[in-house]
Amino acid sequence: MLVGEAVGTNTNDEHEAKGVHHMKGDVPIKLSRDCDAVMIPSGDKLRLVAGSCVWITQSLGGSFTVMTDRGYMARIRGRDADALGIEERRAEKAGMAPAKGVPEEVEKLVWDQLKTCFDPEIPVNIVDLGLVYHCRVSPLAEGGNRVEVKFTLTAPGCGMGEILKVDIRDKILGVPAVKEVDVELVWDPPWDQSMISGAAKIELGMV
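User: That's the sequence. What structure does it adopt?
Assistant: C-alpha cells below.
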C-alpha cells in the first residue's frame, strides 16, 4: 500500500490510543479451531489451522488483520472471531431506520456504513482514504432503494479489491430500505495521497 510507510511511523502506543489493537510482541493468540482467512495483499485464500499462533495488528470494521507465525499478514472475518478467543461484535441497527426511506436519508446511512469499511493494512476507513469515488441512491419502482458505489484501491497491484467489494456490499445491504447494491472497482482517476482527508492525514502521521 502506498501509505504503508506513513502508517508505520506511528508507535504502538499511538495506535492503541486510536483504537487500533497492536499485539505484535505480546503473547500470541493460539487459534482454537481451523479458520479461513485471506492473505494480504495478494487476496489469496488460505486456511489457518487450529493451534497456530497469530498476532492481531489491526481490528477495525468488524474484521481482524493478523500477522501469522509464518511471517505473512492475513485478514480474518468478524464471524470467525471466536477462533481468536474474541466475541463477535455485531453491528447495531437500532436507530438506523430512515424516515420513509427517502433517498437522501438512505444515502447518509450508506455513507455511515462505508466509513465502517477499512483497508486491512491501514487504520483509516475507505471514505477518509479517498477511495470512494461515487455513491448514488435511487428509488426502485417496487419500493426500497438501489445503491451504486464506485471505489478504488491505493495500489493497482493490491489483491484485496474483491474482498472489499463484498465487505462494502454486505455493509450497505444492512441499511434499512436498501434492496439492491452494485459495487464497482475502478481505476480512473488513479488514486493518490492528495485524496486522503485532512483528519486521516493527521491520523496517519502524514502532517
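The mean pLDDT is 85.
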